[in-house]
Amino acid sequence: MSDEMKRCPFCDEEIRFKAMICKHCQQWMPGYSYQGAIRDLVIDKQETRLVEIDLEMSRRSRDEQYQLALNWATSEDKIRLKGIDLAARNLAGVDLSGADLSGADFSKADLSGANLSQANLSQVNFFEANLRGANLFKAKLSESYLREANLAQADLSGAVLMRADLRNAILSQAKLYRVDLDQAKLKGAILQNADLTESYLKDTDLSAADLAGARLKGAMLIRTNLSNATITSLQWQTAGSLENTVMPDGRVHMAGPSAN
C-alpha cells in the first residue's frame, strides 16, 4: 500500500489517504460528516471568489470603480470594495452601508450625507475628505487616516476608531456616543458640542483639541492627553474615569473615578 493510500476502518478496503468517505462501504471517515464536508466546500468557494474579486478590482479603471461604488447599494452582487480608489470623487449621499471598503482611498472625496453605517473602513485614507453629516454608525475605522477630515454632525455612535489619525479633524456636533478611541490621535481636533458620552478614550491624544461644549458624561479617560485642550472642569468632572489623565494645565490626574 502506497503512502497516499490507507485502510478503511470500517471495511478494511484500500482507499485514498485524503478520502472523507469510503468508496467501498460508503462510510464517512472519523471526524468527517456530510454537513462538515458541505461547509468546507462552501467556505473554500467563498474564499476563492473573494480573491478573484480583489484581483478584479485592481484591474478596473478609476471611472469603473466610481460607478461600482455609486451603484453598489442596488447591485445584486455585493462584492467587496476593498482597496477601491475613490479619491476626490463626488459621493455625496452614496449608500455604502455594510460594505467592505478596507484600505480604500477616499482622500479629498465628498462623502457628505453618505451612509457608511456598519461598513468596514479600516485603514482607509480619508485625508481632507468631507464626511459632514455622514452616517458612520458602528463603522469600523481602526487605523484610518482622517487627518483634517470634516466630520461635523456625523453620526459615529458605536464606531471603532482604534489608532485612527484624526489630527485637526472637524467633529463639531458629531455623535461619538460609546465610540472606541483607544490610542486615537485627535491633536488640534475641533470637537465643539460633540457628544462623547460613555466613549472610550484610553491613551487618546486630545492635546490642543477644542472641546468647548462637548459632553463627556460617563466617558473613560485613561492616560488621556488633554494638555492645552479647550475644556472646563465642569465637563471633565462628569467623566466616568480620569485615570492618569494629563489635564489642560499639564498636571496629571492620578485618581480613577472623576470627582462628580
Structural write-up:
With 260 residues, this protein is α/β, with parallel strands linked by helices. 15% of the residues lie in helices and 7% in strands. The strands form three sheets. A three-stranded parallel beta sheet has the order 3-4-5, with no helix packed on it. A two-stranded antiparallel sheet has the order 1-2. Strands 6-7 form a two-stranded antiparallel sheet. Strand 4, helix 3 (233-236) and strand 5 (241-243) form a beta-alpha-beta unit. The chain is flat and about 80 Å long.
Summary tags:
7% strand, two-stranded antiparallel sheet, alpha/beta, 260 residues, 3 helices
Topology summary:
Elements: E1 5-7, E2 14-16, H1 34-59, H2 62-70, E3 200-202, E4 220-222, H3 233-236, E5 241-243, E6 245-246, E7 252-253
Strand order of the largest sheet: 3-4-5
Sheet/helix structural class? alpha/beta
Rg from alpha-carbon coordinates? 25 Å
Provide the succession of SSEs.
Answer: EEHHEEHEEE
Task: Note the total helix count.
Answer: 3
In quaternary terms, these chains amount to: single chain
Summarize it:
This protein has 260 residues and is of the alpha/beta class.
